[in-house]
Give the backbone structure.
Amino acid sequence: MVVAWVLTLPAAGAVGALVYLAAHGIGGTAGVVVLLVLLIAACIAFFAASRHPAVTPENVNAAWTGSVAPAPDPEPEVTP
């Protein structure tokens, strides 16, 4: 758990600093508005991606045809 906090907090600070630099680089209210639009677009994209193979009450217990183990490699052909 300590590793998670040690990685997460500095990463959040770095992202915040990059967003500040981007907004400050664009300048004023326009920078804030541009980054807000980008944030909203990213949120919509993440939401849409999360809905793609949606798990619903109808399919939550559906049979799964996949395997947990990877498929074995085919045996190489031996030529005399």
User: Anything to note?
Assistant: Residues 13 and 19 are 10 Å apart (CA to CA). The mean pLDDT is 87. Residues 28-52 form one domain.
